[in-house]
Task: structure prediction
Amino acid sequence: MKIGCFALMEPFTPMRRQFEVIRSMGFDYADLTDNHDGATLGTEYGFAASFSLDSHADDILGMVNEFKLTLTSVCAHANLLDPASPARYGTAEIIKAIKLAHFLGVNQVITTEGDPKTEFGHHLTDDQRVFSVAEKLYEPVRWAKKLGIELLLEPHGILTDTVPGMRKLLDVLGHPETVGINLDTGNSWLGGGDPHEFVKVFGKRIKHVHWKDMPRAMEAQRGKQFGCGMGLIPLGDGVVGIEQLVKELKAIGFDGPTTLEVAGADAVKTSAERLRKWAAC
Result:
């Protein structure tokens, strides 16, 4: 099993430091995580682990190659339920992420609808949500198809967190050779879905996995909170059933990359050890 980490391991340090930490922990794979249009003061002065979507690919690859890492995806998590705005991460940024992934030699870009922040977004009907997401992803799908990139939808919103919602989006978007799923094990559970059902229903449409477990204390939030940034406990200490998910993914022949979405060095190391043990069984 390919197990990597987010390039977001240590706060208030630059991107190069993220790769250095990932290598020091013994990992070979990384995802490009936080990113932005244009330039930011934080990255310019070295206290933000974000990269510009306008970066020259060689600048990123130089850091990646320095630590002998392989990039598996570019994250392009978006706001697809609120009205389009230059202040919101949306269609334009996803297209930039796809183009950057192409020049980086990375095969996957991961996106999702996210939580709405406006009154408009909160009052959409279910059909309107599907239309809003599909409309904003129409051009990114075209670019992904043209450049040979897999555009993966992650459970991280009111639609994508459940099997019925994800199925509606996949049906509307079409292009099954281009559009797939990044299964976030914690988000799908937290949003009221079932990651085990995702594996059963979508099978080989799952191209990447973000691993995180959820503590029993989060059960009160289930179906009310759609996605969370990082898991705060080691895999196997929560209620998601990660060991069984590993077995279910093996059974369908999953061989794609996976990423630990776990905070804290000790929790990351414990999670990786357990994953390798479960995958070997």
